[in-house]
Structure prediction request, 467 residues.
Amino acid sequence: MRGSAGIAAVLVLVAAQGLWNAAAQPGFWGYDEGAHAGFALAIREGGLPHPLSGWVTFHPPAAHVVAAAAWALAEPFGSRASLVALRLPSLFGALTLVAAAWWLARRLGASERLALCAALVAGALPPVQLAASMIGNEAFAAGAAAVALCALVALQQDPRRARAAIVAGAFAGLAAATKFSGLCLLATCALPYLRRDLDARALRAAALCAAAGLAVAGPVYLRNVVTAGTPLPMTRTEKAPMVAGEGVFDPGPRRLADYASIPLTCGQHPYIQIVAEGGLVAGLDPAMRSVPCLVYTGLWFDPFGVRATRLHPRDGVGWGVALLYAGLVPSLLVALGFARMTARSLRSRGRAPEAPLVLASALCAGSFLAFTWMIPSLVAAKSSYLLPLVPPAAVAFTHGCALLPPLARRAAVALSLAAAALAFAVFTTGVVFAPAPREISLAFWTRVGAALPGSHIAEAAQRLLAP
Prediction:
């Protein structure tokens, strides 16, 4: 396929699969889906809630405002339509992520075929698939970050572009108004202007970029300071249900060895918990203490079992191990490409065309590692927190492929496409894993809502999940 027809086909595939998953999952079987739905309902019922009033209300609210509007439009069509509508902002964010991966790869010199392969692999990554059909803010924030990265690459080549500067600042601000990790994108916006040869047009563009970012993200963080006393409030240290929920997955204080080693047993059991037949939990898998092991498992499977249900763990282990091995080739290509991009950026002192991708990735990865150190619970090391790295990783994939001789490159691309096909099959609801029971999530989130009166979580569960 050529040009826009090829990426259009990829986007149609991702959209169709995402819509199917969004409709086929009847319950809150995603990361904190019930809490995110409660946040959206609170906005509908009375405006923005206090940042510390619910499970996830500490998050900047941009995605939840959009979800609340989508819910209001879909509610006349019933609870199932409302559930799908609440997941649509996430699907839109995932589609933006995939489109940006293709655009950046092409802009930075990849062939059409390699760019399409990179976009397809990006859309097939399990955390992208899962986030695309969940109620939440991760995919929406990553989509906003992806648009900002596209504008930053354009600014890197010509920092005088006022329109690109406004887009970069506004969408970096939107990412920061959706998740705290978006602040990394706001910091990256400075890179195109860290040079001595700026003229008046470039300085004007820099001011426009800063003003756009401040206009979008500033009110959110100012409100946090006024209402919660800090720009970065966190309910996980304030609310008993969250503390208890994360405590189940707490293996103890972090050690440097958790970051510097990968156990030989990594990959033998792709769930964070050792589960017996029937779903009985026998404890945490010791290998998942390793952050690299857990992150890689999260990139190519579903270690928390939110969609790869653990009712029949033998099936999950079999498919999970297959995916972990299938993902080795594309992952190695990404690592090779990142090494090349980083070296080029350092040699050019930040002037290489791909330098904004390298800096944004470094800031995002660094904040992720710091977060896992401060919060030792395994839930803090979810790979979905790294979704903003997907477009840079797609570009790195093409760089890694370009370093291979032709025959090896063709083999690597074929194996990467095979991994993408397997991932799509495993995480299309009903192909391998049946939809998770609605009754379990309804009971759980009703209990959580009772423990957090005023959070609207129980009301959301009853409206969307009750028969």
Remarks:
- The longest strand covers residues 281-284.
- Residues 3-238+326-465 form one domain.
- The longest helix spans residues 79-107.
- The mean pLDDT is 92.
